[in-house]
Amino acid sequence: MKILSLYFSSTGNTEKIAKEIEKTARGLGHRVDALKTRRDIDVDLLYYDFIFMGSGVYRWLPGRPMLNFISRTLKKYAENGNIRPSAPRLAGKRGVIYCTYGGMHTGVNEAIPAVKYMGQLLDHLGIEIAGEWYIVGEYHLKKYQGLSTRGRLGNTVGRPNSDDLQRVAEMTRGILQI
Ligand SMILES: Cc1cc2nc3c(=O)[nH]c(=O)nc-3n(C[C@H](O)[C@H](O)[C@H](O)COP(=O)(O)O)c2cc1C
């Protein structure tokens, strides 16, 4: 399959997940293009058979560069006539949406809007969402020190850790075999 791994990562947590996905998918013989969202990236999502799309969670939503990418890309496809009423499914095209999140205040509830928000881009294009993954990620910024041990998820220092990455590799293998 032609696979796109598109992600935004500010402090490196989501990047660890993206690299694990890329390595695992390549190991299975797939062709993988890995892209970190920047201000000017433009990619044809419809070219790919499978898309992994992920971001860290920032105030319940994906990071700003990912939000900007979604706005730009939605506009492009709307102008090209690819956003249609009822969002008809595109045969054989699927994706996984994932985030890394701290969950300090309300646990996974503050990550759900980010994943649902990103997913709507694929869903509007007719790409089936085959999975939604929520992966815990430590807060790295100095001014938030302490948040990684006192929140609703308990101690998240070092997350995503090697167990998290192993689970991501297993889920990647699983989902690509469907
Ligand atoms: C400025 C800032 C705001 C954050 N806001 C949230 C939030 O609202 N909810 C949450 O669950 N995690 C929040 N986090 C934690 C990050 O989502 C988490 O550390 C994530 O793994 C970062 O991913 P990244 O390093 O790939 O950008 C925040 C972290 C920072 C630094």
Task: Outline the secondary-structure elements.
Elements: E1 2-8, H1 13-27, E2 31-36, E3 50-58, E4 61-62, H2 64-79, E5 94-101, H3 112-125, E6 128-136, H4 147-150, H5 162-176
Helix pairs in contact: 1-5
The site of flavin mononucleotide (FMN) has 24 residues, from helix 1, strand 3 and strand 5.
Describe it.
This protein has about 180 residues and is an alpha/beta fold. It has a single domain (about 1-175), classed as 3-Layer(aba) Sandwich (Rossmann fold). The protein has five helices and six strands; from the N terminus they run E-H-E-E-E-H-E-H-E-H-H. The protein has helices spanning about 15-25, 65-80, 110-125, 145-150, 160-175; strands at about 1-10, 30-35, 50-60, 60, 95-100, 130-135. Strands 1, 2, 3, 4, 5 and 6 form a six-stranded mixed sheet that branches. Strand 3 and strand 4 (about 60) form a beta hairpin. The longest helix has 16 residues, at about 65-80. The structure holds flavin mononucleotide. Flavin mononucleotide binds next to helix 1, strand 3 and strand 5.
Question: What small-molecule ligands were found?
Answer: flavin mononucleotide
Order of helices and strands: EHEEEHEHEHH
Helix content: 25-40%
Low-confidence stretches: none
The second-level CATH architecture is 3-Layer(aba) Sandwich
Largest sheet: 6 strands, mixed
Q: Hey, roughly how much beta strand do the residues contain?
A: 15-25%
**Helix/strand structural class:** alpha/beta
CATH topology: Rossmann fold
Mean pLDDT: 96
Overall tally of structural domains: 1
Distance between the termini: 12 Å
SS elements, strand count: 6
What is the number of helices? 5
Overall shape: it is: globular
State the name of the first-level CATH class.
Alpha Beta
Radius of gyration: 16 Å
